[in-house]
Amino acid sequence: MDFSTPPARSTPPQTDTPGTHHKSQASERIHPPRTVRIVFSPRTHTHLHYKSLEKRIHTTDDLTYFISTTAYARIQFLLSYISSAVSAIPTPKSAEGLSPGVSGILAVFDKLDDLADAIPPVAGPRRFGNPAYKTWFSAVESAVGTLITDMLHTADVSADAKIELHGYLMGALGSFQRLDFRTGHELSFLAFFGGCFFLGALRDTSRSSNSAAQSDETGDITGKEILWIFSRYFKVIRKVVGRYNLEPAGSHGVWGLDDHFHLPYIIGAAQLRGVEDKHDTGKEGNNAPDHPGSMRPPTTKKKESDYTKYGMPRPVAVMNRTVVDDQMDVNMYFGAVAFIYEVKKGPFFEHSPVLYDISGVPYWSKVHTGLLKMYNAEVLGKFPVVQHFGFGGVLFPWTPFCGGR
């Protein structure tokens, strides 16, 4: 199934059996597209200079050029790298055991959370956009600069990088002017995370003892740490979206994947794809035991048809609210679906027909590949979304991509 464009029509299920509304698809092993490994070292890029982010996509010709830029290549690398790193890893339930290099970015999330608690919505009926959001946004902008500076200092990274990182972080929190939030904002967070990663601000130097790690100045970061960073971000943003009733920015309406998010579906499908790959691409009948990387918590199965024989939920399990509640804390795909159940009412096939259609895909590897294609088409390839993306001088520059640089 190609998810790059919305389906023309979706129909409700005709029976009570999940998944029977789709044709079965042949099993095939699909891997994410190859992406050139980005070689980035601030010490070898001394000719570049950090600068305030600029919007560079003003026309369709600019959008075409965007695909050839270093910024675009680094975004593609991050999608591939993150998908590989989180493979078969459940979302952690706490920050216990994470490296000191991640503590700085977690302090930022804690501050966002605390400020949301401290700034209540303004009373009064409004369809979208509570004005208290502007108060929260301004408070965040004043507070997080120091946290970013501290994070860079702890990682022994030039404080000059703050100007670009601060821009990407604020862009990841929604629109101050329009009181909305959607995929262009989470793209900005991907850039914030990527900037921290490329700079080495998230590295754990205690792990960088071998020659391979020393040659890559970013150091290593585990899939568990990546999942905790992104899950904390999405948890805070869902709180802000709900608390201040932010409008879905540029939503496709009912034919969109999700009113606000796309990345948690990619990451969550990558988590489950990894479990699937360990069991011969999800083929049944191999009598494989439950794998330690199973996304399913130790609870009673409500419907055998919602799980594979080795304890992993099938894509169709998003139709079962009980399974979604079981999975939401250990898998980002189901966490995103759980938020939909929280904010939307009515039959799933009516309010989320694209996710409903995806639920009929038999293998997570195909779901993941389709979601990546959809992200390239509907986020990175859509002018209304990427026209707001900012380009700096070092981290995500508006320059032609040359190999691995």
Automatic annotation (TrEMBL):
<dbReference type="Pfam" id="PF03095">
    <property type="entry name" value="PTPA"/>
</dbReference>
<feature type="compositionally biased region" description="Polar residues">
    <location>
        <begin position="7"/>
        <end position="18"/>
    </location>
</feature>
<dbReference type="GO" id="GO:0005737">
    <property type="term" value="C:cytoplasm"/>
</dbReference>
<dbReference type="GO" id="GO:0003755">
    <property type="term" value="F:peptidyl-prolyl cis-trans isomerase activity"/>
</dbReference>
<dbReference type="InterPro" id="IPR043170">
    <property type="entry name" value="PTPA_C_lid"/>
</dbReference>
<protein>
    <recommendedName>
        <fullName>Serine/threonine-protein phosphatase 2A activator</fullName>
        <ecNumber>5.2.1.8</ecNumber>
    </recommendedName>
</protein>
<feature type="region of interest" description="Disordered">
    <location>
        <begin position="276"/>
        <end position="307"/>
    </location>
</feature>
<dbReference type="GO" id="GO:0008160">
    <property type="term" value="F:protein tyrosine phosphatase activator activity"/>
</dbReference>
<comment type="function">
    <text>PPIases accelerate the folding of proteins. It catalyzes the cis-trans isomerization of proline imidic peptide bonds in oligopeptides.</text>
</comment>
<dbReference type="GO" id="GO:0007052">
    <property type="term" value="P:mitotic spindle organization"/>
</dbReference>
<keyword id="KW-0539">Nucleus</keyword>
<comment type="similarity">
    <text>Belongs to the PTPA-type PPIase family.</text>
</comment>
<dbReference type="InterPro" id="IPR004327">
    <property type="entry name" value="Phstyr_phstse_ac"/>
</dbReference>
<keyword id="KW-0697">Rotamase</keyword>
<dbReference type="GO" id="GO:0000159">
    <property type="term" value="C:protein phosphatase type 2A complex"/>
</dbReference>
<keyword id="KW-0963">Cytoplasm</keyword>
<dbReference type="GO" id="GO:0005634">
    <property type="term" value="C:nucleus"/>
</dbReference>
<dbReference type="InterPro" id="IPR037218">
    <property type="entry name" value="PTPA_sf"/>
</dbReference>
<feature type="region of interest" description="Disordered">
    <location>
        <begin position="1"/>
        <end position="34"/>
    </location>
</feature>
<keyword id="KW-0413">Isomerase</keyword>
